[in-house]
Every structure is written in C-alpha cells, then in structure tokens.
C-alpha cells in the first residue's frame, strides 16, 4: 500500500548555509567565551536569531502539508488506523528533522551567548 508522494520544496542549500553560519557563530563564541565583548555578543545573537527565523520560516512549508499528509495516511490505512497514524507521524517527524536540528542548535547557542536573554534584536 503506497501513500501518495507530496512535493516539498528542496531547502538543502539553505539548510547547509544555515549550518555553516551557526557553526561559525559557535566557533566565535567558543574562542572568546565569557570574555566576549558586548558588540560581538550582540552580533552573534543577531546572526543566530536571523538563522533561527529563516529556518523557522522554511519549516512552515512542512507544517503546511500536515493535514493533507495525515488524510492520505488515514485513507490508505483504513483497516489499520493505528499503523497509518504511526507511519504518518514517523514520516512527518522525518520531514521536520533537518529543520528541528538547526533550530535546536540555534536555541542552544542563544542560551550560551545570552543566558539571561538581555539582548534584543531591533
């Protein structure tokens, strides 16, 4: 029983660029750590926040297919709804995973750079 394929925009290039930016910001933070000047700290928060926002926007394209994807699995697995639900959730998590990994890294880095969330982005 095959589930209909849903066409999703390929964000591989953008995600790779996001990974590189976050890795660079992480290296810069680690080089100076607690001695990070406020100007550099603000710059890093800006970069990481911008990446987080961009990746979040891209991941919305995956959220937009949830209902149609779930409906498709429900229709294909009428005789075994539990299996359909499990397969749907597995596939849905799979399409979000690359975005979630980057977003989690962004949050982790933001908490390191600005642990008290004092820096605001304008």
Structure description:
The chain is mainly alpha-helical and 122 residues long. It has one domain. The protein is 75% helix and 0% strand. The chain is built from four helices and no strands. Helix 3 runs antiparallel to helix 4. The longest helix has 33 residues. It is elongated, with a radius of gyration of 19 Å. The termini are far apart.
Number of strands: 0
| Count of alpha and pi helical runs | 4
Number of domains: 1
How far is the first residue's CA from the last residue's CA? 51 Å
Question: What percentage of residues falls in helices of 4 or more residues?
Answer: over 70%
Sheet-strand content, in percent, reads: under 5%
Radius of gyration: 19 Å
Report the mean per-residue pLDDT as an integer: 92
Describe, in short, the structure shown:
The chain is mainly α and 122 residues long. It is 75% helix and 0% strand.
Topology diagram in text:
Blueprint: H1 12-32, H2 38-63, H3 66-76, H4 81-113
Helix pairs in contact: 1-2, 1-4, 2-4, 3-4
List key phrases describing it:
122 residues, 75% helix, mainly alpha, elongated
């Amino acid at each position: 029983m095959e589930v209909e394929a849903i066409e999703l925009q390929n964000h591989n290039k953008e995600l790779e660029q996001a990974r590189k930016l976050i890795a660079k910001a992480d290296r810069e933070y680690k080089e100076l750590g607690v001695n990070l000047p406020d100007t550099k700290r603000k710059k890093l928060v800006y970069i990481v926040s911008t990446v987080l926002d961009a990746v979040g926007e891209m991941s919305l394209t995956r959220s937009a297919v949830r209902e149609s994807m779930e409906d498709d699995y429900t229709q294909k697995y009428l005789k075994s709804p539990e299996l359909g639900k499990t397969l749907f959730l597995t596939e849905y998590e799979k399409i979000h995973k690359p975005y979630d990994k980057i977003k989690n890294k962004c949050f982790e880095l933001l908490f390191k750079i600005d642990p008290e969330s004092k820096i605001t982005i304008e």
